[in-house]
């Protein structure tokens, strides 16, 4: 648990300013939480908004956490035929070079615009029909995959049903499981 003291400048007249002080308690448990308590007013100047923003940026546990799936975990799912939606966001050329059998190609990479992300709606429709978990497969499992997850969540797919392949398909250790449209299996 961490305690931060923040002060907010409050105008109370034309020339006089007071500072309101807050105690912010950050609890690092399974689900991080923040408690804010007012501790009174006194004379000082400090910009409350800037301080809170700096604190929020310095606490990685408060950022949206993404569910990651390791290569070995995904391999087990594939080997046991566990129903899983493989949502591939690679560019077309990368998809043609290596992808999983049965994956849904979206070519959503880099997933920065609405146009990029609209193709990921296929994953939403498949989820609505089956209720199966979705594994987002990007080149490296980084920010484009996270943006795709954010998009899926806004479309109603529960956060606990979406995973990102850790390291992406470029770091997939079981190359013989990948297909290559240009030349069959690797």
Describe this structure in words.
- The chain is an alpha/beta fold.
- The chain has two domains: 2-62, no CATH class; 68-185, Oxidized Rhodanese, domain 1, CATH 3.40.250.
- Helices cover 28% and strands 30% of the residues.
- It contains six helices and eleven strands.
- The protein has helices at 48-58, 71-79, 92-97, 114-118, 121-130, 143-154, and strands spanning 2-11, 17-27, 33-42, 68-69, 84-88, 99-100, 104-105, 133-137, 162-165, 178-180, 184-185.
- A five-stranded parallel β-sheet has the order 4-9-8-5-7.
- The protein is globular.
- It starts with a strand and ends with a strand.
Strand content: 25-35%
Count of β-strands: 11
Number of structural domains: 2
Mean pLDDT: 78
Q: What is the CATH architecture assignment of the largest domain?
A: 3-Layer(aba) Sandwich
CATH class of the largest domain reads Alpha Beta
Largest sheet, order of strands side by side?
A: 4-9-8-5-7
Helix content: 25-40%
Envelope shape:
globular
Please identify the structural class as seen in this structure.
alpha/beta
The CATH superfamily of the largest domain is Rhodanese-like domain
Order of helices and strands: EEEHEHEHEEHHEHEEE
Which fold does the CATH topology of the largest domain refer to?
Answer: Oxidized Rhodanese, domain 1
What is the number of helices? 6
* Main sheet properties: 5 strands, parallel
Straight-line N-to-C gap: 50 Å
Give me the Rg, rounded. 23 Å
User: Could you list the spans in which at least 5 consecutive residues all have pLDDT below 50?
Assistant: 42-47, 57-63
């Amino acid at each position: 648990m961490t305690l931060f003291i923040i002060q907010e400048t409050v105008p109370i007249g034309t020339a006089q300013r007071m500072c309101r002080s807050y105690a912010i308690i950050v609890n690092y448990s399974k689900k991080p939480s923040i408690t804010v308590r007012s501790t009174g007013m006194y004379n000082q100047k400090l910009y409350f908004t800037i301080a809170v923003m700096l604190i929020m940026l310095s606490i990685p546990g408060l950022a949206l956490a993404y569910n990651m799936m390791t290569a070995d975990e995904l391999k087990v799912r594939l080997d046991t035929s566990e129903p899983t939606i493989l949502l591939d966001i690679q560019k077309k050329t990368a998809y043609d070079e290596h992808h999983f059998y049965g994956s849904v190609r979206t070519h959503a990479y880099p997933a920065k615009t609405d146009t990029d992300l609209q193709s990921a709606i296929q994953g939403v429709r498949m989820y609505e029909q089956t209720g199966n978990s979705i594994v987002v497969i990007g080149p490296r499992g980084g920010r484009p995959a996270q943006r795709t997850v954010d998009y899926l969540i806004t479309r109603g797919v529960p956060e606990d049903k979406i995973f990102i392949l850790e390291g992406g398909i470029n770091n997939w250790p079981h190359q013989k499981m990948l297909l290559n449209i240009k030349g069959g299996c690797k």
